[in-house]
């Protein structure tokens, strides 16, 4: 087994969807810094959004993109154009001992696969599936959502 697989399996990431946001034409969502063993993530399903970090780094998110914040840093999401935006926000909780691993990663992991690649197509389908599952009361929904969130993180770290 490779080192990344061993590290992630040892830390047993637990993922959840926290919010499904449908936002109008002029919006911003500030987020304060959080607990170090928690990774925040955001994925777009419609529209566009700008992610601003305290360092001044700016990312533009499009449908199918996922941004993960391994150090749970403060950040602000805001509108790009006057179009409505749909954002899925979630967290991935790792054991406290994982903080050493998380602080060795970049402040922002941006998962934006090449258009029409296998990863791109999977993300475009996985995000709406995750939204649908999070609203259901089916058996195993928490485990399924958790594993999909962990897959986002694994793909982003591999990039």
UniProtKB/TrEMBL annotation:
Give the Gene3D superfamilies listed for this entry. Jelly Rolls
Q: Name the species this protein comes from.
A: Escherichia coli
Q: What residue stretches are annotated with the AraC-type transcription regulator ligand-binding domain?
A: 2-158
Matching entries from InterPro entries are given as:
AraC_lig, RmlC-like_jellyroll, RmlC_Cupin_sf
* Superkingdom of source: Bacteria
List the keywords (alphabetical): DNA-binding
Q: Which Pfam families match?
A: Cupin_6
One Gene Ontology molecular-function label: DNA binding
**Protein's name in the database:** AraC family transcriptional regulator
């Amino acid at each position: 087994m490779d080192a990344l697989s061993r590290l992630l399996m040892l830390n047993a990431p637990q993922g959840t969807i926290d919010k499904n946001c449908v936002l109008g034409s002029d919006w911003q969502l500030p987020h304060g810094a959080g607990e170090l063993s928690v990774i925040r993530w955001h994925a777009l399903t419609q529209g566009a959004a700008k992610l601003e970090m305290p360092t001044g780094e700016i990312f533009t998110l499009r449908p199918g993109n996922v941004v993960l914040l391994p150090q749970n840093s403060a950040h602000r999401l805001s509108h790009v154009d006057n179009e409505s935006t749909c954002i899925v926000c979630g967290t991935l909780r790792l054991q406290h001992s994982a903080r050493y691993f998380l602080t060795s990663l970049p402040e922002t992991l941006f998962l934006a696969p090449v258009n029409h690649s296998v990863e791109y197509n999977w993300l475009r389908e996985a995000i709406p599936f995750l939204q649908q599952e999070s609203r259901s009361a089916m058996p195993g929904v928490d485990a399924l959502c958790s594993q999909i969130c962990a897959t986002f993180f694994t793909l982003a770290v591999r990039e």
